[in-house]
Each structure stands twice: as C-alpha cells, then as structure tokens.
C-alpha cells in the first residue's frame, strides 16, 4: 500500500529523515492520527541496527496498560524494514497482537516511507462534534425551547455567560472553574451543554454533587426539563453507593440466624416483604427507616459481593443498577461515589473499563467548594470499638448456651470437622474476648486523653502521653487482631474450592463474608500501625475524637473514634480527577475570596489540586447573581457587639438573637458555629418566642430533612442550627426573612486535620491565618449569607453578631465577599429598629 494513503506528507518526511539520520537502520516510532485518520505526528521512541530495533518494553507497557493516558496514547506503532521486505516477523506479530487489544495499530514501512504494510488496523479516531454556542444558548433565551417550559422565565446574562464557558470546556477538552451566584441558574447552564454534547458525540458524562437534595433535583426535575427541551432520548441514571441497596444473599443469610431480637426480627420481616415487590432495592424507597445495625448486615458491600457467582445474581438490585448505568449517557452521582471510582482507577483499575462507575472522561462537579472535604473524608480510615464489636459479633457470638456466627459455619466446612470440638470454639471465644478487652482498654485510655476538649491529635510534643496512654493498647489490639486473622486464614486455606464443587453456594457465601470481615480487621490493624508509627507518616494526620452515646443503643458512656486522614488531598485530586479527564467543569456559588473586582480563585485552586495542573488550559469565570440585593437585602451589624474573646459575648448573642427573631415575627434561621452556643441561645429564646406565638425548632431534636420540612411549612417558625445548615437550605419567600450569623465561621482550633494543615503551612513558610483560616471562613460566611435570597422576589435581613466584622481589619475581607446590599452598622438598638422597619415598612 502506498504510504501517502495512511500518512500525511509531513509525517512521511519526518519519518524518512529519522531513518536517514540513523544510516538506514531500524527505528521504532509512535504515530498519532489526525481527524482524517491519517498519521500526522511522528514520535521516535528507539533506534536500532539493520536487523532489529528495541521495542521499549516499559513504553509499550505504558501504552497497553493505559491506552487512555494522554502522554502514552499513540494510534499506531511503526517501524521500518531496511531490507524493503515488509512481511512481519514473529516478534512483529506478537507486538502487533498485544497492541491491537488496546486499539493500537501496527505498521511496517520501507526506508523511504513510500510503502506501508498494515499489520493491524488502529481504532479509527472519531472526530468529536463541536457544540454550537449560539444554538444551545438560544434554548434559554426568550421563547427558547427551555424558556417556554418554565412557569416563570427571565433572561439572565450570567446564566448565558456561564453556559458559554461550559460549552468551551466541552469543545476544547478543558478544565473550567466557575463561581455562579445564587439565582444564576447554574444547573441549566451546565446541563444544556452536557446533554447536547452527550447526544452529539455519544459520550458518557458524570455529574457529581455533594448533597442528596441536589442529586434528586437534577434527576427528577432539571434533567427531564432540559431533555424535553432538546427532544433528547438520552438515558439518565441516578447512581448511589452500594450501601443504599439491599443484598438478597446477605438478607437470606441473616434470615437463617436465630439470634435476632424481636425488634430486629420485625424490622427484617418488613424488609423481606418489601423486597418481594421492590424494583430498585434502594433503602430510600422503604416506607420506614430500617434499623442501622440490621441494614449494615443485609446491604450490598463491595468486599462481600460474590458477583456472577452469587446465587441471587439474576435478581440482584446492585447488578440491575449497574446494568442501567452501563447503558446510560448521563450519570448523576455524589462526590463520595465519584472518589471511590477515581481512587480505584488511579490504583490500577484503568480508565477504560467499569469500576464503581462505567468508563467516562468528562465530569461536572457541582458544589465544587466541598471537594477537599469530601476527598479528605473518603481517603480517611477510621474505627471505633462499636465497629469492632459488630464485626466480631458476625464472626462469633454467644447468647445464653447458644453459639452462632460465621466462624462456626467455617469450622463446619473443614474436612474432618469433627476434630473441631468444644475446645476449639472456646479458643476462638477467648481470642475474640481478648480483642474486645484490648479495644475496651484502648477506648478507655483514648477517652481520657481527649479530655474536656473532646479531641486528641498525635503530635511529637505529646509523645509522653502517647507512649503511656495509647501505644501499649494499640500494640495489644493489633497483636490480638493478627492472632485471630492468622487462625481464620489457616481455616480458609483448608476450605475446598467452590470450583471443585466441594462446597455449596451458601457455604461459598460464608467464605466471602468471612474474607470481607478479615479485610476490615486488617484495615483496623493498619490504622493501629499508623498510630504507632505516626512520626514516620508526615503526610497523614492521626487523631481521636470523643463521641457520646448514639452509636450503641445500650450505652450512654462516651467512646472514642480513631481516624487517619490525609494532610493534603490536592495531589490526589490532581492525579485522580483533573489529569485523566478531558473535560472537568467545577461550579459553586462560593469558589472565590475577595470581591468587588478583586475576587480570586487561588485559595480553592490550591486546596482542590487545580493549582497543580500546569499542562492544561484552565478556564474560569465569576458569574454574579442577578438578584436585586441592593434593594431587597439589609446587612445589619451591631457596632457595639463584643469580640468573641471578650466577656459578655455569649450573653450578647443570646439576647440579640432572641430580640431580632421576635421582632421579625419568626421566619428566622439562626446559625451558630458550635452546638454549645446554639443550646445556650435556644434555652434563653424558647420561652420568649413561644409566648409570642413563634414556633421554635432546634437542630438535634429531629433528623435534618424533617426539621427543614417543619421549618418550611411554618412561616412563623425559628430554626436554631449549626454547621450543616450553613449551606443546602432553600427556603424561598416569607418562610425565611431573617438570617442571623452569630459568629464568623472560623474553624475551631481544636479541629485536628485543620490544626495539622495550619502547622504544615507555617512550616512551609506560609501564613496559616491568611492562607487557610481566613479564606475558609469567608467561603462558609458566603454560604451562610446565601441562605436568605433564593428567588428574585425574596427580601430580608442578614444580621451578623460578631464584633470582629467591624473591629478587625480582616472583617473587610468578609464584607467585600458579599454582593452589594443596604447596610446598617450602628448600635444594637439601631439595627433592631432598622430590621423591623425593613421587614415591615
């Protein structure tokens, strides 16, 4: 075949010159195709002699193992035969065969590159279809396909500008960071380009968000509306983590266990009845809340899943969901699930096969301001005595004279199991009791070390406490876990393989369950090792938190949770999220610090890993809210508010919050940075507000969703809340007319991960306050402020009761981060009067 049919003229000349430069010897080259499927780019990888060339094995391994990697993704392997005879040798055929499995072709050429022998055809490079910005944005302009379907519509310049940024990110294979103020309509701004691109190019796009609320809104409301406007038949699937789905095999195993109490039995019977008719097996579809301990024993788990060897595979809810996802072009997921998938791919699973999710290379991250926190949580390991208890109980438990558990089932599967007499069971019982005692001793010492602060982070200056109060207990617990693990592994090695039909499917399920628990115990042992070797792990934070009561219905005593967290997730996010994906669009209402013409993405880019990306185009834009803050919002700050470090601050906040809420007649969200402060203000305000006919709600008295529902249904209610309510609360209209931010949301100095990151910044020559504390607090402050205005017709007051806002120089940074509003910076009497006049003119 003539080479000109498969190469561009420039590529032929390049390859010919390289061969001539070697004196006519063999060369090994990588070829890259253009949109016309011709080799347009040549990269020389090796040079040889007249008979052979070294096909660099490491380079080939990179190509074959990760064909999606941008730096190792040639379309064709090329080498020349100086003899002019282009028939492939056996080694040529072996390499070509391996390359073909990854879609990479193999060509042999003569020295003048006039002829080519195609050993294996490359996968054709399909030209991606670019999006037409004008055609897409027209859908959200007056009379457009989407605009016509909205009950109330107004053209928003910020929304159209954000959409142009998203379109460019898809067309140019770019990364984009966008701050879109409340009311911009960011969901439509990225959904229209995403669905349009998926339709035009038959590509899968993953949309990830931090909250279930937004997941549901996207899946049930926004995406169907956009799809209808585009006349799209794209399949969209909402994907949740395994723990949300019932495992029929595990449920069947639990049904056979005789040791459930009556409450658990009743709960289980209800789940069994539901499972007979459920189409999804999703816990959210239950009409009641299953018991947490029971659900953990019957839900789907990756490490106990038997996959295609499961006897219930034809009815498996998890496999059904995965089949749906594999056939979908839009996947709506949460950040934790996305990180689970990215981590597995980065650790060797690759980017061209199904792992947790089907393969993809375009991602939209909504609520992107949360990704550092979400990644930190995902890449942390933790355990508590209750978690160990649960796993040990599944292995072996004794109730009165009855002994049950997976280990006993395992013993019954061993050849000549009669040899396992009561003494063996007693030995197992002793070892498990030793583990319980070891974790109890560790827990007791850890709770004591946490003291009144409730947190203890391992650090060199605390080494004496660690050596005496923790290390011996960690060593003991790890030792006992290793002893039990050794016994279990010895038993597993003696179990006949299922392939040999020596054990039935139920017995095989037991083996899988035992192996899963063994892996969890190994993880706990590894956490113990991390704590013991904390000085050798500068990239990790080891810490203990004292918790109270709720993990075990039978215990009111405090207990300890042991956690190992990464110090810096930026490099991981860069490698796992930004590097391998062609398009990554990050959007949030709060990604910048500063404002009024000086807003910067620097803080978020540094924390998220985007600042580490040097070889990609990074688009960014700030898209301001179209809401009329200047006429509809009053920012009120009392000039006589004490500083938090001054005496009387708590009393001032308690009284001020009650006075303002009463003046507003309810419709107030009062946000705190600690539950102690919340409780103090609530106890003072409750009798006063109730006497005024105002309903008083407090975080902790009910679960978050029901608490919000009660608040939204009663315009005269007041909700006292803390951390999680600073964002994700959508209360339009007169439901919410007053937001009180009682204190600037600086992270507590006792937060162990935050403390470690501050110390690391200082050690690197940075300023922990300016580089970390202040930017993080400003972003959360913006989230709290954003609770008030949810529709353009909303109006109300945001009152900030922290004296630092006006008295500290950095207070201006907080103020500059907000949109321009009406303001009242006077004494408390003045702002109380201004609040009432603004709300009731």
Automatic annotation (TrEMBL):
* Superkingdom: Bacteria
Q: Which InterPro entries match?
A: ATP-dep_Helicase_C, DinG/Rad3-like, Helic_SF1/SF2_ATP-bd_DinG/Rad3, P-loop_NTPase, RadC_JAB, UPF0758_CS
Question: Which keywords does the record carry?
Answer: ATP-binding, Hydrolase, Nucleotide-binding
Specify whether Hydrolase is a keyword of the entry: yes
Which of the seven top EC classes does this enzyme belong to?
A: hydrolase
**One Gene Ontology molecular-function label:** hydrolase activity, acting on acid anhydrides, in phosphorus-containing anhydrides
User: What's a GO biological-process term for it?
Assistant: nucleobase-containing compound metabolic process
The record's family statement is:
Belongs to the helicase family. DinG subfamily.
| Stated name of the protein | DinG-like protein
Query: Which species expresses this protein natively?
Result: Leadbettera azotonutricia (strain ATCC BAA-888 / DSM 13862 / ZAS-9) (Treponema azotonutricium)
């Amino acid at each position: 075949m003539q080479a000109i049919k498969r190469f561009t003229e420039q590529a032929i000349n390049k390859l010919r010159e390289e061969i001539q430069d070697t004196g006519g010897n063999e060369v090994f080259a990588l070829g890259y195709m253009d949109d016309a499927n011709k080799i347009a780019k040549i990269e020389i990888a090796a040079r040889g002699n007249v008979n052979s060339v070294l096909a660099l094995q490491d380079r080939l391994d990179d190509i074959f193992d990760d064909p999606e990697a941008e730096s190792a993704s040639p379309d064709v392997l090329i080498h020349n035969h100086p003899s002019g005879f282009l028939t492939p040798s056996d080694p040529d055929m072996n390499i070509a065969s391996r390359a073909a499995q990854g879609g990479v072709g193999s060509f042999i050429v003569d020295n003048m590159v006039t002829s080519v022998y195609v050993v294996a055809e490359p996968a054709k490079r399909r030209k991606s279809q670019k999006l037409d910005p004008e055609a897409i944005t027209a859908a959200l302009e007056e009379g457009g396909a989407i605009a016509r379907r909205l009950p109330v519509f107004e053209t928003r310049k910020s929304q159209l500008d954000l959409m142009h940024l998203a379109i460019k990110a898809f067309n140019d294979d770019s990364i984009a960071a966008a701050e879109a103020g409340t009311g911009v309509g960011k969901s439509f701004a990225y959904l229209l380009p995403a669905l349009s691109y998926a339709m035009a190019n038959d590509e899968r796009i993953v949309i990830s968000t931090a909250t279930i609320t937004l997941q549901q809104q996207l899946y049930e409301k926004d995406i169907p509306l956009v799809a209808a406007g585009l006349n799209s038949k794209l399949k969209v699937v909402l994907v949740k983590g395994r723990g949300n789905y019932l495992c029929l095999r595990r449920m069947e195993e639990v049904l056979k266990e005789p040791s459930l109490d009556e409450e658990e039995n009743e709960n289980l019977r209800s789940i069994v009845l539901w499972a007979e008719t459920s189409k999804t097996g999703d816990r959210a579809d239950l009409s009641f809340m299953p018991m947490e301990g029971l659900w953990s024993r019957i839900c789907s788990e990756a490490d106990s899943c038997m996959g295609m060897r499961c006897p219930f595979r034809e009815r498996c809810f998890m496999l059904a969901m995965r089949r749906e996802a594999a056939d979908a072009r839009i996947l709506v997921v949460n950040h934790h699930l996305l990180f689970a998938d990215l981590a597995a791919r980065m650790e060797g699973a690759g980017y061209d096969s199904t792992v947790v999710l089907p393969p993809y290379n375009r991602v939209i991250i909504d609520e992107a301001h949360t990704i550092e926190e979400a990644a930190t949580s995902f890449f942390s390991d933790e355990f508590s005595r209750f978690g160990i208890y649960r796993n040990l109980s599944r292995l072996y438990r004794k109730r009165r004279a009855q002994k049950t558990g997976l280990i006993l089932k395992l013993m019954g599967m061993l050849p000549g199991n009669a040899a396992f007499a009561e003494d063996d069971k007693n030995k197992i019982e002793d070892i498990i009791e030793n583990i319980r005692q070891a974790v109890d001793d560790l827990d007791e010492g850890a709770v004591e070390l946490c003291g009144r602060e409730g947190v203890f982070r391992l650090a060199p200056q605390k080494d004496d406490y660690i050596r005496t109060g923790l290390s011996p207990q960690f060593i003991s617990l790890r030792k006992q876990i290793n002893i039990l693990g050794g016994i279990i592994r010895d038993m597993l090695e003696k179990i006949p393989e299922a392939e040999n039909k020596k054990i039935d499917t139920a017995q095989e399920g037991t083996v899988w369950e035992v192996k899963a628990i063994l892996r969890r115990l190994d993880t706990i042992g590894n956490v113990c090792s991390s704590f013991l070797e904390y000085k050798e792990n500068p990239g990790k934070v080891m810490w203990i938190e004292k918790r109270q009561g709720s993990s075990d219905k039978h215990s009111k005593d405090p207990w300890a949770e042991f956690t190992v967290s990464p110090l810096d997730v930026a490099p991981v996010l860069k490698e796992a999220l930004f590097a391998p994906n062609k398009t990554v669009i990050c959007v949030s209402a709060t990604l910048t610090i500063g404002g009024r013409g000086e807003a910067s993405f620097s803080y978020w880019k540094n924390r998220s890993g985007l600042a580490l990306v040097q070889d990609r185009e990074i688009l960014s834009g700030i898209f301001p809210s179209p809401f009329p803050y200047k006429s509809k919002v009053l920012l009120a700050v009392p000039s006589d508010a004490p500083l938090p470090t001054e005496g009387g601050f708590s009393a001032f906040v308690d009284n001020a919050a009650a006075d303002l809420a009463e003046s507003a007649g309810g419709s107030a969200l009062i946000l705190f940075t600690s539950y102690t402060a919340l409780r103090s203000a609530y106890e003072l305000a409750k009798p006063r507000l109730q006497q005024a006919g105002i309903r008083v709600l407090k975080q902790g008295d009910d679960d978050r969703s029901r608490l919000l529902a009660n608040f939204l249904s009663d315009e005269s209610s007041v909700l006292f809340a803390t951390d999680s309510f600073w964002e994700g609360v959508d209360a339009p209209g007169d439901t919410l007319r007053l937001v009180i931010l009682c204190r600037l949301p600086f992270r507590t100095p006792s937060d162990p991960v935050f403390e470690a990151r501050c110390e690391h910044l200082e050690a690197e020559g940075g300023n922990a306050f300016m580089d970390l504390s202040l930017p993080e607090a400003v972003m959360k402050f913006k989230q709290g402020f954003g609770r008030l205005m949810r529709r353009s017709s909303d109006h109300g007051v945001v009152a900030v009761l922290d004296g630092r806002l006006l008295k500290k120089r950095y207070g201006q940074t907080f103020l500059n981060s907000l949109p321009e509003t009406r303001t009242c910076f006077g004494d408390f009497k003045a702002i109380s009067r201004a609040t009432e006049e603004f709300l009731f003119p």
